């Protein structure tokens, strides 16, 4: 490893661990690399690369999906999704925990952001589960663990960013993540069912007559049309992800403003402000990451990694295991968006050189990084749930451990069975 590459990575990781925002740590790493290598002639290229990293029609989908999610939250559409999940999942033992997971699956189809899931559902489910006799740590564990389903199911912001960075069809990637995402939800529901038998968790009492089921299903139909619009538009080739995001925003605005009348014109300023702030935070990371990836390309990191993998003489499955381990470790320390921007193109190129399907690898990478949201020291979903529950990090880690285990089992299945990810994109002609 050259002194330039050591400086680039060392300064970035050092400043990141010191608490500097990740975007500025990346730019500092690039400038330090220029200083140590004497490549100051490349200085004008840095702002150009930063701008080009953000100047993408596909990436316009990111603020649009964020805005759609904010409109859904502000419009209290969540209540209807929870009632729908309660009607269909609540009758099982451990019903409220099952409803929590089921609501996350439904909510994922609207926001595609893990923290959005916790913000919207955690405030409802954590107090409700505690009131019904669950420990606050267990309630927080279910909420945090089910939140990682969101970034797996369309409209996944992680998938949009990964596809734009690695030049993989976002429609194909969204189709490929559907069944692995549902597998995570199913695995967590099975775990809750087992725990419910052991600990005698209660079911949720509610009217589940055909008339009642039809009523809550009808009430949930309007918000559930948001993921239908997005999926049908993108997978059907009718709309690009950016156009689908725009249509979803208009639909969510009309539903919240006129249909349910749960948002007034005065509150929209706060909604747009939060969306703009979150979008800006993501996109500046994307831009700085593009400059950082360019510097790594100047150090021939993709070629070095591909050459190292060729020298391992390992099967694609064994190499996939190595990539899984690397991505899990990276996800423990670095935000998923930053990992994708920094290492996505390099790892995707190396995986393709090793005989791994790029689409399959993309699904595995996204799932790995989502699991990292539950693991310290980063663990943003873990800490967000702990703040809501006030249960203490130690108790939450113990309660989360079984969910982390079933998530890793699901990851192993997705990694070992490429067809689970690839059959739907192939069926749709991607």
From TrEMBL:
Residues 9-420 form the TRAP C4-dicarboxylate transport system permease DctM subunit domain. InterPro entries: DctM, TRAP_DctM. The chain crosses the membrane at residues 49-69, 105-126, 168-191, 212-238, 244-263, 275-297, 317-347, 359-385, 405-424. The keyword Cell membrane applies. Its main location: membrane. Keywords: Cell inner membrane, Cell membrane, Membrane, Transmembrane, Transmembrane helix, Transport. GO terms for cellular component: plasma membrane. One of its GO terms (molecular function) is transmembrane transporter activity. It is found in: Cell inner membrane. Pfam families: DctM. It is a multi-pass membrane protein. The complex comprises the extracytoplasmic solute receptor protein and the two transmembrane proteins. Part of the tripartite ATP-independent periplasmic (TRAP) transport system. Belongs to the TRAP transporter large permease family. PANTHER family: SIALIC ACID TRAP TRANSPORTER PERMEASE PROTEIN SIAT-RELATED, TRAP TRANSPORTER LARGE PERMEASE PROTEIN. This is TRAP transporter large permease protein.
């Amino acid at each position: 490893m050259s002194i330039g590459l050591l400086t680039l990575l060392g300064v970035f990781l050092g400043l990141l661990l010191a608490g500097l925002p990740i975007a500025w740590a990346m730019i500092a790493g690039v400038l330090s690399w220029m200083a140590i290598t004497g490549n100051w002639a490349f200085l004008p290229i840095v702002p150009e690369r930063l701008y080009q990293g953000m100047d993408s029609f596909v990436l316009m989908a990111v603020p649009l999906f964020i805005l759609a999610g904010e409109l859904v939250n502000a419009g209290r559409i969540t209540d209807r999704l929870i009632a729908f999940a309660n009607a269909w999942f609540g009758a099982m033992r451990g019903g409220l925990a099952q409803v929590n997971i089921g609501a996350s699956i439904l909510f994922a189809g609207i926001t595609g952001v893990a923290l959005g899931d916790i913000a919207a559902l955690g405030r409802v489910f954590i107090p409700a589960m505690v009131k019904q006799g669950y420990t606050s740590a267990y309630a927080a564990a279910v909420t945090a663990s089910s939140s990682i389903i969101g970034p797996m199911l369309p409209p996944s912001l992680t998938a949009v960013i990964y596809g734009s960075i690695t030049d993989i069809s976002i429609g194909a990637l969204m189709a490929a993540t559907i069944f692995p995402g549902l597998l995570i939800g199913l695995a967590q529901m099975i775990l809750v069912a087992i725990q419910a038998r052991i600990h005698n968790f209660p079911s949720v009492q509610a009217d589940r007559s055909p008339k009642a089921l039809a009523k809550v299903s009808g009430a949930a139909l309007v918000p559930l049309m948001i993921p239908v619009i997005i999926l049908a538009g993108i997978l059907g080739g009718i709309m690009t992800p950016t156009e689908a995001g725009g249509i979803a925003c208009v639909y969510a605005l009309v539903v919240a403003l006129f249909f349910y009348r749960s948002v007034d014109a005065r509150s929209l300023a706060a909604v747009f402000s939060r969306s703009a702030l979150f979008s800006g935070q993501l996109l500046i990371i994307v831009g700085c990451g593009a400059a950082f990836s360019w510097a790594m390309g100047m150090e021939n990191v993709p070629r070095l990694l591909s050459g190292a993998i060729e020298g391992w003489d390992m099967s694609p499955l064994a190499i996939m295991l190595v990539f899984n381990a690397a991505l899990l470790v990276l996800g423990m320390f670095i935000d998923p968006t930053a990992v994708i921007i920094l290492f996505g193109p390099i790892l995707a190129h190396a995986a393709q050189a090793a005989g791994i399907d790029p689409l399959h690898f993309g699904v595995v990478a996204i799932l790995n990084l989502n699991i990292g949201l539950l693991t310290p020291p980063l663990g943003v979903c873990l800490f967000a749930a702990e703040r809501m529950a006030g249960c203490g990090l130690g108790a939450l880690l113990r309660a989360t451990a079984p969910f982390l285990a079933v998530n890793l089992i699901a990851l192993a299945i997705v990694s070992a069975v490429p067809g689970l990810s690839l059959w739907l994109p192939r069926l749709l002609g991607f």
